[in-house]
Amino acid sequence: MPHIKINLLEGKTEAQKQELTDEIIKVAKKVLDYGDDAFSVAIQDYTKEEWKGDVYPNQIIAEEKKLYKKPGYKY
Predict the structure, then answer these.
(1) Catalytic-residue membership of 57
(2) Which residue ranges does the record assign to the 4-oxalocrotonate tautomerase-like domain (predicted)?
(3) What is the CATH number of the domain that holds 8?
């Protein structure tokens, strides 16, 4: 079943996170043809320092071949 993990810079509201989740699930249901019960979503907040020191090198650069959308920034 699809488990969607979202990494964000800290500062987004719970309402923004919920809306993002709802919209992603709406599109994923349409594209993948699964029902609501199939999905789980996790959102992890990071500081800018954590992003630069952990997320960017370890989850973006190190796994670049798995990216379907690459970022338009570099550190």
Answers:
(1) no
(2) 2-51
(3) 3.30.429.10
